[in-house]
Amino acid sequence: MILYPAIDMKDGKCVRLLQGRFDEVTVYSENPVEMAEKWESTGAQYLHVVDLDGARSGEPKNLTVVSEIASKLKIPVQLGGGIRTMETIQSILGKGIERVILGTSAVKSPELVKEALKTYGNRIVIGIDAKDGMVAIEGWEKTSDFTAVDFAKKMRDLGAKTIIYTDIATDGMLAGPNLKAMEEIVKATGIDIIASGGVSKVEDIKNLKGTGVAGAIIGKALYTGNIDLKEALEAAK
């Protein structure tokens, strides 16, 4: 199971939002590049970056910094937030970023997903954010008409090989992941699921491993010191 330390970016800084609320911001570092290098030197195999300004506005806003992160690290970087066109995807992948995550755009334009998957294959990851089992969009500020499981199957049928599944209720709450939801989506789709939201202690990683997920994103718990990355990486092995 691969662990993905998360860097959430807002105004060029490394922050965390509580349950995706833009009025509940904590700044953890003024220098995301240093933060990324720290996680790499601790042993991370992959880095997960979210452009929060991008998610809200519909186009990437922190690309310069993310490109710098990608150029300085030896490990791959994946980026999500505001990626809504083929041009944007092409531009991001051309900047040394390994994978792009399509979230809102996957819900609103399945044609884009189809084309992106056809062109870039495994470098396209689908981000599904669920609120009470329904897919949320636009920086989590709206809910769509799809259930997370049905939508995940739909994306798999379009050719997606990897899905990041975030349970919004648990995100940033340090209350443990929604194991039942993770297990359900793994069984329903049969593709690689990366769990996101609620990982607060090393035990959570062991529990997630039991659900069959291919990876887990760790955010707030790393920044508050609830989880030591080295210890977490051992548990994921």
Features:
eight-stranded parallel β-barrel; alpha/beta; TIM Barrel; 30% strand; single chain; 40% helix
Summarize the structure.
With 237 residues, the chain is α/β, with parallel strands linked by helices.
Task: Report strand order across the widest sheet.
Answer: 1-4-5-6-7-10-11-12
> How much of the residues is beta strand, in percent?
25-35%
Question: Which oligomeric state applies?
Answer: single chain
Q: Output the helix-strand order.
A: EEEHEHHEHEHHEEEHEHEHEHH
Task: Kindly state the percentage of residues in helix.
Answer: 40-55%
The biggest beta sheet reads: 8 strands, parallel, barrel
Structural class: alpha/beta
Mean pLDDT: 93
Q: Give unreliable regions as ranges.
A: none
Count of DSSP strands: 12
CATH superfamily: Aldolase class I
The CATH class label is Alpha Beta
Number of domains: 1
Question: Would you mind describing this structure in some detail?
Answer:
It is built from eleven helices and twelve strands. With 237 residues, it is α/β, with parallel strands linked by helices. It has one domain (2-236): Aldolase class I (TIM Barrel). Strands 1-4-5-6-7-10-11-12 form an eight-stranded parallel barrel, surrounded by eight helices. Helix 1 runs parallel beside helix 3 and helix 8 packs parallel to helix 9 (202-211). The radius of gyration is 16 Å and the shape is globular. The mean pLDDT is 93.
